[in-house]
Amino acid sequence: xxxxxxxxxxxxxxxxxxxxxxxxxxxxxxxxxxxxxxxxxxxxxxxxxxxxxxxxxxxxxxxxxxxxxxxxxxxxx
Length: 77
Hints:
mainly alpha
């Protein structure tokens, strides 16, 4: 789950969705808009281990680029 904030740029979120989560450009743009409008969105569903790996990778990318992007992992309902 990606959580919207007022600092992380749209371009960065799109880049992360494409590089870490294998989104194509159009789907990344649409998902980024959904995150922005709704405040958060489920970007993918994986096994816990893979979700944790993707969350760590995303968080590291964000921090290395000075963005506070927050990622949450929750069990699917």
